[in-house]
């Protein structure tokens, strides 16, 4: 559900404004109305960019963290200078890494360049030069190299690499030279270059250890620095959101406070000399949204936020989509073994997970549990068809077959669509009043009555005729409301035309929306079939092997096959329920969204 909010106006003398904001931050419940965007304030933009740099640096350092690293401690920095120093140290490590990698790459090129000449003593060449001889190094293609150069210029072939001849000449400076590319060698011999490369690589390893040490022991400094900047960002933003009044002598600020926290805020500001007035919430106000749900629905709030928060004038869809999403996930996975794996893995990792990850793992515990139950009902366990297991013959009739599953998918889809129509009616009732919501409720009644009128004879052939007629009667009554009272106060003929248009859209939309739910059956069936295929491959392909090799090969096939199937099914089981929620459910419930997250002005 959406937490109720109060709107407040604060009027403060300009010299007391900063002290007032400090007081407000200490209270920590006021969401300040934004009058100036972050992009319009240079100081805020600079702080935001700096925080992005810190976040990027922390992400880069996280990959160097050792497995046995101590838990990150909560620190409070004395000043921004301490945080800047930590940030500079971290960035210096990455700058040094970049420099070393560049130097190693350059040194490798020098080594590769020198390897074709092999190891020789530079001192010997220097002695020849002092004696008046010049040693020159050349490269030439094999086709261009001429054997007579050996006699004419004293050429000596050293090496031939990929049709290129590398050779040297020894002679006096005034001697003629061969028509070939002259090569300038590095200043060091091959052994020295390799030693220099090893030294650089050792420095790079030491740099990696330094980053590991920083990640293990000083990451908290960056977190504290980010928190410090976050507080500064919030305070600076609050400073510029007020509007000056009476020649800027008075500062006018608006904010939002949850109703449950309003008395606390009012008592804290009482007697401080500040003017505080509760305002009437007006249509068009961007009221911040704070969701408050029970322990189960709260786990599905990230899914709601993935699309958009609801606006203040509508229902929070989270508790209404939660059971359906869990059911859809289980139907798409469709395998009890995979569900049990998700449940056990989530439970195992939850104990060691951080505060931010625990709710996600709790969500997957529920999703895994639902998948396990649905997988057992559909008779699939790691690709094994339970209905074909002789020991389970007595319960075979209880497993859902393919026809049952397809019908179930359509029925669940119709239930969610009707459910969404009812929610749409409730939303309109809240926003505009009962009479404006009657037509929307009527369509939910019409769809339900017509479906029951046709479905009841198939489910229970002996159902009395009067019940069927009653369903049609209810549908007709709903139709009168939907066609003639869809816009209260307007001409009945206009209402009838609007009703016809709505009927066309509802009929065509209902068919398409309902068919969309068949993918629940199709995806679940695909995963089960693929699991069975990999099981068959593992047994049939190894049938002629002896026991030990057969077990090893079977395990390899099963691990690769089921791993691939599990990954693909996991993606499908997340994507398609989200799609059904955001398209079919949200469309029929007339979800608007566009809400802003409630972010109270307080210290990090």
From TrEMBL:
GO (cellular component) term, any one: proton-transporting V-type ATPase, V0 domain
UniProt-annotated location(s): Membrane
BP GO annotations: vacuolar acidification
Protein name: V-type ATPase 116kDa subunit family protein
UniProt keywords, alphabetically: Ion transport, Membrane, Transmembrane, Transmembrane helix, Transport
Short name of one Pfam family: V_ATPase_I
Main location (coarse class): membrane
Domain of life (superkingdom): Bacteria
The species this protein was found in: Porphyromonas gingivalis
Record membrane topology: Multi-pass membrane protein
Membrane-spanning parts: 324-349, 361-385, 405-424, 436-460, 466-486, 493-511, 517-539, 551-575
Alphabetical list of InterPro entries matching this protein: V-ATPase_116kDa_su
Family that this chain belongs to: Belongs to the V-ATPase 116 kDa subunit family.
GO terms for MF: ATPase binding; proton-transporting ATPase activity, rotational mechanism
